[in-house]
Amino acid sequence: MEIAEILKLRQNANGLNKLMNMHVITLDKDGGATVEVELTDELLNPLGMAHGGTIFTLCDIAAGSAAASQGTVAVTLDSTINYYRPGRAGHRLTAVAYERKRGRKTSVFMVEVHDDEGKHIADATFTMFYTGQTLDDMKH
């Protein structure tokens, strides 16, 4: 499957991506992805900041998209996240994921999150498990 087709699949994904209005902006065939979200009221915690789950989900979608960029199906096996600053209502968050280490069955992805003012919001590490299926297999 070509990278443009994989990008289109990720951009048109339903489920949580669509519900939370998270958009895959770029994919790169070397295991990279960029995902963005506008921080609307629905994605905030009671204190008016980006909910930690919103930021984590943004990172998970970025890591999953990066893993999918090579046409393979992967699921999250393990993850850690460090929050540095709050995401503020009305701002856009961007998560950039890149592959740190690829193995036969698993890969490790690093994810950095910044806001639209360039402030570093969070970092995450995701270990993704490859199921053995390809994205072509999932279309049938």
Report the sheet-strand fraction.
Answer: 35-45%
- The SSE string, one letter per element, is HHEEHEEEEH
Helix content: 10-25%
How far apart are the termini? 14 Å
Task: Please name the CATH topology.
Answer: Thiol Ester Dehydrase, Chain A
Low-pLDDT runs of 5+ residues are none
Number of strands: 6
Number of domains: 1
Tell me the Rg in angstroms.
14 Å
Note the main sheet.
6 strands, antiparallel
CATH H-tier superfamily: Hotdog Thioesterase
Q: Assign the CATH class.
A: Alpha Beta
Q: Record the strand order, biggest sheet.
A: 1-2-4-5-6-3
The CATH architecture can be given as Roll
The coarse overall form would be globular
Q: What is the number of helical segments per DSSP (H or I, 4+ residues)?
A: 4
Mean pLDDT: 93
Structural class from helices and strands? Answer: alpha+beta
Characterize the structure shown.
- Pfam families: 4HBT.
- Keywords: Hydrolase.
- This is PaaI family thioesterase.
- It comes from Agathobaculum hominis.
- Residues 48-119 form the Thioesterase domain.
- This protein is α+β, with helices and mostly antiparallel strands.
- The chain has one domain: Thiol Ester Dehydrase, Chain A.
- Helix content is 24%, strand content 44%.
- It has four helices and six strands; from the N terminus they run ααββαββββα.
- The chain has helices at residues 3-11, 16-19, 52-68, 135-138, and strands at residues 23-28, 32-38, 72-83, 92-102, 106-115, 120-134.
- It has a six-stranded antiparallel sheet with strand order 1-2-4-5-6-3.
- The longest helix has 17 residues, at 52-68.
- The radius of gyration is 14 Å and the shape is globular.
